[in-house]
Amino acid sequence: MPASPYVTELRGKVGSGLIMFPTVSAVIFNDRDEILLHQRSDTGRWTLVAGMMDPGEQPADTVIREVEEETGVRVEIQRLAGIALHEVTYPNGDLCHMVNSWYRCRPLTGTARVNDTESLAVGWFPLDGLPDLSPYARHRIRTALPLDAPAWFAAPGEPMIPGI
Description:
CATH class: Alpha Beta
CATH topology: Nucleoside Triphosphate Pyrophosphohydrolase
Strand content: 35-45%
CATH architecture: Alpha-Beta Complex
Number of helices: 3
CATH superfamily: Nucleoside Triphosphate Pyrophosphohydrolase
Number of domains: 1
Shape: globular
Helix content: 10-25%
């Protein structure tokens, strides 16, 4: 998916240098304890639905928007599951530090499907049958599993979570 006008304008000013972005991820469990994943069109990797916040947008609104845009599923947020800083370097050399908050969600309406150009495939997976996922995706899933756990965060002084 092409960069938003906001990101394009920033990149025009700083080139491929470091930019920090607020991002969100959705860890969506259905009634069968399966998790909704999508296969990214840019990398071909399976991962959680995620995206950048738009200026003026609340994180919860971003979660709901991104999930619906990418999968056709409308979700309800059950809890904040965690927050962490991680580094991403894109194939074109753009460097980003993503401040990612992830949320445990449940589906309300809609049927999971490829709903935009960001996904090659979308599917529900049992926890014991997940496709190959990055350590960071697995961390977000693990910390979102308990319905009543506090939000996870790195302890002061801990290094960044490796990029995805």
